[in-house]
Amino acid sequence: MYQVKYEKGLTIKALVTGANKGIGFEIARHLGKRGYDILVGARDEARGQAAAEKLVAEGISATFIKIDLNELDSLHTAANMIDSLDIVVNNAGIPDRVKPRRASLDMTKNTFDYTTEDLRATMETNFLGTHALTRNLLSSLTDAAKIVNITIPISPTDFWHPLAYITSKAALNVMTLTFAYEFEKMGSHRQIFGIMPGAVATDLNGMQAGAHSGFVKSFESAGQMSTDIILSDKNQNGQMIQYDGKIATDYEVQLRIKQH
User: Its family (predicted)?
Assistant: First the structure.
């Protein structure tokens, strides 16, 4: 198993957004257990503080930092509070525009029912907010820092094709590939890559682990799997890594249309 390598007295630090629950919390917990000081990024202060305190109770160095991807001006302020980062995990995101008395992700919503406001709200959080945060953090990254974007494949399937969410993640994936190109062109040791954890049971989708014949995994196992990928000794710059460790080598959009 990968172990953090650092000199005595050297602090190694990771920021995880959306770390107050689910996959984000589990990634933060596993990184913390492997020696990282954790910045628990969350937009809700009470929940973020509670998550940080839970990590501290497990012997992990953790501090809450307010990260609200909808407030772009605040992201610059938050970034200025961070002097050095070794890992950034962009995990926070929304599946669709929040509506009263409806699940965060309506798995039955028809593609044609998505409004412009649905698309705008999701894109502003999942892509524009994440891009703004990452860009503001560039000056704080160590020479061999890793930027990790939690993402999804974007080809529609019978089971999974929420238009707003897929669209926002497609933009995030393009950002991953283009940032990686710039890092490589500069001769930088920094890396940026995407992790596709697959179907995960979270409160956003109302699914249960083990559903669909075991296809849906728990956020605990997804968090541990993601952390193992993050801490790999391999150069993963520009890669899209699936939950099984395989690299997506043909990422260009491929629409699979059934022939009748």
Answer: Belongs to the short-chain dehydrogenases/reductases (SDR) family.
